[in-house]
Design goal:
The structure is a homodimer. In chain A, helix 6 crosses helix 8. By secondary structure, chain A is α/β, with parallel strands linked by helices. Chain A has 9 helices and 16 strands. In chain A, a hairpin with a 5-residue loop joins strand 10 and strand 11. The interface between A and B is large, with 37 and 37 residues.
């Protein structure tokens, strides 16, 4: 998997930091988390293929998280999209699409399948092939959904040494065992996959928590995550303001990452008040609590080795 | 006056050409014509002062002309704007603002004064201090408004030679005459402004016509304009497609400019199909009909000497 940060800004975009949008590239598809104004342009800047976009998740209806949605959808139509697109987000998504379609005289030639989360206080799980996405309510001024994408566990690595000691010839028999099939060797011996495969490997996990104050659900979503992308709107001297506005400081984000046992923290939703020269201080504050932190920038890519 | 092209793209934005938006800088204020997605970011890129923005005119409700409006307005609020902002456009503007405010839980602390054009088939004139803006219906798939900004005529130049021959001393008396006041010289002679001022000078005129097929109202709006900014979506081999989609080719735009007696033509709303290497051909096609043509680019500035 690969994460592409399309927008790492907060409510007020700057030339360097556009409104929230995060792409997650998986085999054969791209998922988008939030779709702030200009996300479709950043999508192009990052040279992502619009045809690969399969699912869009919207955290909440503050403008910096969804004002770019309708423009992205209409552009997909103009690119002659045919395959369905899936949208997930709070109740209101359908009404928004209907209103904008009518006002802008727009008709979609592809299906937009909307799943609205109506009970925002409960955990919601969507199961897909090879992975699941869980949404949980965070703690913002209005309810915002945090997301966790968790890949299904992968079969263990093929242990060549064991295969050789069992006399399994190179070729299709090894391939079948790797895929989990039992095989019979030329000499009549039956071999089970478990005899030549290492332990099952856990799937990769990515959590995306914004906008939010520090909260228990962010920790749930980020549990053992390979990457946690978290609201880090302010430096830690602004704790009161973060509390008032329903955001987190970079240190609070680092505390969540530490408590959840995440492997890496990516700070995003950085307030427009911080200039380039302020960034080392923001990063240092977070790294004192959680060393493996990066401060996200627009169009930055983060690989997650599988 | 100065024109700043913020978005010269068509329906499908590209990395080089964002959706429609044109800023017009006047003494003490900035007017914006259309507000496609990302206009607020281009406004920053062009280093325009948001506090100077006084009026926004929306031509029509195809997405590439207004999807950036709500984001621009909410950002003005976050920049603590206090003074009113005036919006002009087709019926539907109010409903759009109300819907988006409600969905995104947004409250404005400054007044947004909306003037909707309800009868789109008639000419509409708004009078301001020192200039007027006229809107006329163009010929697109849905009714789109074209605009003409015309400055009030300016008083003639002060003719120093005449003033000297009349024995008018340098200083406040000359200033009064320049402002159009009659004065009495120390020797008792009465002098009228017309005795020392050259002929009244016409005000500058800018016309903005998109989206549209060639139409009579575009010619009306562009009559003797110093600058005509016109839909030039396609090269001239695409006349049929321009007709089908309600747009103009670059040659049709040039014909409008010639017929209207405009001084300069700026082609905009350039289709995403044209790459940088196609631009010389587009420009040449137009220049064969109307030599003083430029092909607009995002963030290009066009000065209009007064």
């Amino acid at each position: 998997m690969e994460i592409v940060l399309l927008g790492t800004g907060a409510a007020l975009p700057t030339r360097q930091r556009w409104p929230s949008a995060t792409a997650l590239i998986r085999p054969g598809e791209i998922l988008l988390f939030d779709c702030g104004e200009g996300a479709q342009i950043q999508f192009q800047q990052a040279q992502l293929k619009p045809g690969k976009l399969s699912k869009i998740f919207i955290s909440h209806f503050h403008g910096d998280h969804f004002y770019g949605l309708i423009g992205l959808l209409t552009s997909l139509q103009m690119q002659s999209r045919e395959k369905p697109l899936h949208l997930y987000g709070p109740h209101g998504l359908n009404a928004y699409l209907e209103f904008m379609k009518k006002l802008s005289h727009f008709t979609f030639g592809f299906k937009i399948m909307v799943q609205e989360v109506r009970n925002l206080s409960e955990k919601k799980v969507w199961e897909f092939e090879n992975y699941r996405v869980t949404a949980r309510p965070l703690h913002h001024r209005i309810t915002s959904l945090g997301f966790r994408l968790e890949e299904s566990p992968k079969s263990g690595r093929f242990l060549v040494g064991k295969a050789e000691s069992l006399g399994i010839p190179e070729g299709p028999l090894r391939g079948k065992l790797q895929k989990g099939e039992t095989v019979v060797l030329p000499n009549g011996t039956k071999v089970e996959p478990s005899q030549v495969l290492g332990p099952e490997r856990p799937g990769k996990k990515v959590a995306i928590c914004l906008d939010t104050k520090p909260c228990a659900n962010a920790i749930h979503l980020a549990k053992d995550a390979d990457v946690l992308i978290h609201d880090g709107s302010f430096d830690d001297s602004k704790r009161d303001w973060a509390e008032t506005t329903g955001h987190s400081t970079v240190v609070q984000a680092a505390e969540i990452a530490r408590e959840a046992g995440a492997k890496q923290l990516v700070l995003t939703h950085i307030s427009a008040r911080y200039k380039e020269e302020d960034e080392p201080e923001l990063l240092e504050q977070a790294q004192r609590v959680f060393p493996n932190t990066i401060l996200g920038h627009d169009l930055e890519r983060i690989a997650i080795e599988s």
